[in-house]
Amino acid sequence: MKTQYIKSLLVVAVATFTFSCGEDFLEETPTQYVSISDVGETGEIYPGILAGTLSGLFNSMYTTGTGGTTDHADFGQKGNDIYSDFLSGDLALTANGYNRYSSFAPLLVTVDNTYTRANYSAWRYYYRIIGSANKIIDALGGNDATITDSNKTTMGQAKAMRAYAYFYLTQLYIPEYTPTSKVLPLYINTDGDALEQSETQVVYAQMIDDLEQAATLLEGYSRAELFEVNEDVANTLLAYVYGSMDTNATDILARDLAEKVIANSGLPITTKAETIGGFNSVETPSWLWGADITTDTGLDLISWWGQMDIYTYSYQWAGDKKAIDQGLYDQIKDTDQRKIQFATQADIDDEVNQLQDSDILIPFKKFYNAARVRGGQRVIEDDYIYMRIDELYMLSAEMNAKIGAEEDAKTRLKQILAERFDSAADYAYVDTLTGQALIDEIYLQTRIEFFAEGKSLLALKRNKANVVRGTNHLYLAGEVIPYNDDRLTLEIPLLEVQNNPFIN
Fold it and tell me: What residue range is the signal peptide (predicted)?
């Protein structure tokens, strides 16, 4: 009888941690079904209860509506990746048949906190992750709990996920790293009381502490699924945190962590063939973190694939077209394998591809369903990518260039470019670059390499660059926007302001 009760409790806990919601501040998952003490006590009897709640947390990264809306752009991390890529300017809305991004692409949402699109959904999503992580951490004894072999993996992953959520909140809601600015409330337990906004340096200190602990706790952990966090994922997140702080000391720490992940993971660089292979499978050797999407996952038109792939029955196929910024595309060398990723006029004229005039410069050979039937994939089976090892090569190159280790920077950059060009002569120019020119080239190659993978805004902020919208944007074409412009930062949503008395 007890076994059956615990199994039932596991199901309820997963559902509660992942999907339940109210209208309170943060809208954390409520505990009316399973209390923290319940989870902790049953966890001692049946450790699978905590594993189940952790699995539910990871599932929320690709579940629709986890931002608390029914909007067709609300589907977890990859939905927020699209928002951030629009903010970076590298992703251009070029046709607007269904108006899914008609208020976001012109940057109206980002200066008006009454919009639930993005402002509310991203805030709700990341604080939901934080709330679930805090529940797991408290169930294991709290932030300062004694760590044992039986709980260290769960604790490590929960702390890493809490830091992951805070990191993306800093990138989306804070214009730049200013240590004493106050934007984000810092919740590290399940007390449930509204908190005032913490200084950004305090939020960063918590992220660093969480990720350092996570990396230690997860050392040697061999995960069963790519959606789980392991030591390398934790260290990659920590490298991004340090890289966003923009000091010589933190740049060195970011570089060292990137190098550690490269050495420790043993993952190969994405090959030339894989750059036009669809980016649709967790079996790709270079993927560091991702989700195996199956028909059981239940995704359809409300999904990242629905928004980005013309071979999926959804918006990219039907009329909300998203392409690479014309100016960025023009900077890709003709001999670069990555230029093949995008639809040209020749592709459109080729009847085999079934492309239309409005498909110009969409990434139809970077991201695609393997069947390549226009509008053909109805239930999503293609996987989600969150990280790949190439990011660490480029991050190491960037950090090395910024601290003056230019030869090391060039070495890492050329290792990527060697898999993008047939001839070394095509990237020999890298050897002549120094100073800001080298930093700028690494930034450019980062934008090209990770187009539409949710990394461009992070790079924009690290490099304090300007967005220059190309001619193919429906909105604000030709406009130059600084990285710290208010329009490139989400607003704390009105509902949070109304429900948290400490936020003005």
Answer: 1-22
Is residue 429's pLDDT more than 50? yes
Q: How far apart are CA 359 and CA 345, in angstroms?
A: 9
Dihedral sign of CA atoms 329, 332, 338, 344 in order? positive
187 close to 169: Cβ distance less than 8 angstroms: no
Q: What is the mean pLDDT of residues 456-485?
A: 98
* Contact (Cβ atoms closer than 8 angstroms) between residue 326 and residue 361: yes
Nearest to 358 by CA among 322, 386, 397: 322
Task: Indicate the fold that domain 2-76+110-246+489-499 takes in CATH.
Answer: 1.25.40
Question: Could you give the CA distance from residue 359 to residue 349 in angstroms, rounded to a whole number?
Answer: 11
Report in angstroms the alpha-carbon separations of 162 from 90, 152, 231, 365, 492.
28, 15, 15, 34, 19
What SS3 class is residue 137? helix
Tell me if residue 183 falls in helix, strand or coil. Answer: strand
Task: Give the rounded percent of residues in the chain with a pLDDT score beyond 70.
Answer: 90
pLDDT of the residue at 34: 41
Domain locations in the chain? Answer: 2-76+110-246+489-499, 293-382
- Closest CA relative to residue 398, chosen from 413, 383, 419, 386: 413
| pLDDT average, residue stretch 135-159 | 95
What's the count of helices (H) and strands (E) in the chain, helices before strands? 18, 8
Q: 3-class DSSP state for residue 312?
A: strand
Query: Does residue 62 contact residue 434 with C-beta atoms inside 8 Å?
Result: no
User: Which residue in this structure is represented by tokens 């509506």?
Assistant: 65
The alpha carbon of residue 340 and the mean position of all alpha carbons in its chain are separated, in whole angstroms, by: 24
Q: Cα–Cα distance between 104 and 320 in angstroms, integer?
A: 13
How far is the C-alpha of 288 from the C-alpha of 390, rounded, in Å? 9
CA-nearest of 29, 56, 41, 55 to 5 is: 41
Nearest to 200 by CA among 245, 235, 133, 253: 245
List, as one string, the DSSP characters of 358-418: GGTT--TTTS--TT--TT-B-S--S-EEEEETHHHHHHHHHHHHHHT-HHHHHHHHHHHHT
> Distance between alpha carbon 283 and the CA centroid of its chain, in Å?
19
Runs of H (alpha helix) within 20-76: 36-45, 48-59
Q: Are 282 and 290 in contact (CB under 8 A)?
A: yes
Query: What is the rounded CA–CA span in Å between residue 192 and residue 232?
Result: 32
